[in-house]
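writing this on my phone so excuse typos. first protein, seq and then structure
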Amino acid sequence: MNIKRFLSLMLAVCMLLCAFAFVGCSEGKKNDPTATHTVVDHNDNRVEVPNTVERIVVCDIFPLPSVLTVFFDSAEKIVGMAPASMLAAKNGLLGELYPEILNAETGFIDGSSVNIEELMKLDPDVVFYSASSPELGEQLRAAGFAAIAVSVNKWDYNAIETLNHWIELFSEIFPANAKADKVKTYSEDMYKLVQDRVKDIPEEERERVFFLFQYSETNMLTSGRKFFGEWWAEAIGAVNVANELATDNSVAVNMEQVYAWDPSLIFITNFTTAVPDTLYNNEVGNYDWSEIDAVKQQRVYKMPLGMYRSYTPGADTPITLLWLAKTAYPEYFEDIDIIERTVDYYRDVFGVTLTPEQAESIFAPAADAGNVKL
């Protein structure tokens, strides 16, 4: 063998060995339990998170445990969440599909107040908290946690866009489970389907919607123009009757205001135990709903409860949008089988198998899920 061929052969061998070494190092780093990568959360914090995450705690952002569970198609990583999240899991489909989530601890948090000592006992790899609680984030980081801020209102209460950004963040934290493109494509296609059908409804024929967010003998809360109700109403081609109210998040109203608005359609959230019969029969306090158009026409509906309370963003958001639109304008969506669409959505996007009966249960929620302290 001449020297030139020998050197060429040795060079090829060296390159091959280097390639094997690189792959080996990469695999070793990927499997190294101490390896981390950086993500930017919704408060623009740069957070070092472990490449391998086995234990997750969610603090004061109640829909997130359900979204994470569907994202993983498993609740085994969820070791802590708020009582409000647990109540929804027990009364909705989440606890049925993923009973292991019912083992998560809830005693470490009361409202947005976190007991750091109790949280430490859970030994989480990452902790999620609401981006609207930056002081909690500072407290968590000071205690040494990989704390990740997640926002519910950064995108003007647009439930579709919020869900897409949540899944995008999860896909960066947990790249092996990435679903950002698939979720975004489906949710935006669903939004377009609804928009295409309702966009030409004449203004005078648009439903006037009232969202009953919370309800008791002493308090009635709804959505003004800075809460999810406004977005839902606009997204289905309806009008939020309370959009004159500029208060951020939920806002208290009285019966006289509801009389003046006279909504033609009422949606009751799962943040209250009220159901349509509660209004039809005037079962709470001294409220009298009998002269409200929606009550006279028997057009009061309880919002779905699938993986979580559907008024907020969550895994159910695209299907909730379709259900709201079909409920408001049944004549425009006669060809839509909401149960079939629900089964297909969870299978195609998340790989989750639902029976038709389980899908139906989403649209017949238990009232007890609304017995929640916010």
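second protein below, same order as before
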Amino acid sequence: MKMKKILSLLLALTMVFALAACGGTTDSTDADDATDAAEAETTYSIGIVQLVQHDALDLATQGFKDALTELLGDSVVFNEQNASGDSAQCATIVNGFVSSNVDLIFANATAALQAAAAATDEIPILGTSITDYQTALELDDYDGTVGGNISGTSDLAPLDQQAEMILELFPEAQNVGLLYCSAEANSVYQIENVEAYLEEAGITCTRYPFSDSNDLATVATAACQTSDVIYVPTDNTAAAATETIDSICRPAGVPIVAGEEGIAEGCGVATLSISYYNIGYKTGEMAYEILVEGADISTMPIQFDEDVQKKYNAEIAEELGIAIPDDYIAIE
């Protein structure tokens, strides 16, 4: 009898341990399922600050949103705000993003990037429509990677090829006017480089800087009086005022070569341009790598759109009697 009791006790204990083991396995599976569900339900909050509304920047923002929406579906929420050309407003917008602790900030244009960089060194910041990050962020040591919490994409098309475009289309030109906003660091950077290329080719260059849209008409008028051709870089203030520029330069018969397609479409004859949608989309892919795949933003180099194209404005070219080579594509 005593032996039977011992065997019964051992059998009971074995059943208890077996049940416990089964219960542990069930709990572990439930925990894994709960973790997977939590990851699937993660919603990423993205703050978008855009300096000003115009076609190029709008396309970059759309490309960014499209990329993340395709990759994350309903798991991403955008807080999109436009500073209407006011750099101070960029700072206000970004500070709001920091206060609400967004997961990432998308800064579209130089002033937006500068405001974001000043506001936080912790939240990942991806810039786009930035010509030169070293100039924009006043970096002393720059090797193509910003470091810290900042990376992004550039809208820079090769400046030497832009200068060559001026020489190709207007071989008789002797005086080139450089029209740009002096308040935009990246515009100054482009002007300095294009000026150097043209002067090396024996062309006389004259700078016509304007401080903001209020004095643009006066400066553009002065540029038309002394220039055979005018060069306008990827300049946000100019891009938002192409109608003003066109109303002055086209009647004066002075052609414009632009740094990007939006400006060329509004007032230029030709451009060597990248796709702003493409660089925005590429920035969205970078955001996914950071948010979901755990990529280290401090090691991510600035990326570029490699698909650079020669384009022309058929209407203005025809009106000014300018012959366009066959390898140029008409802006649609």
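Residues 43 and 68 are 12 Å apart (CA to CA). thats all i got for now
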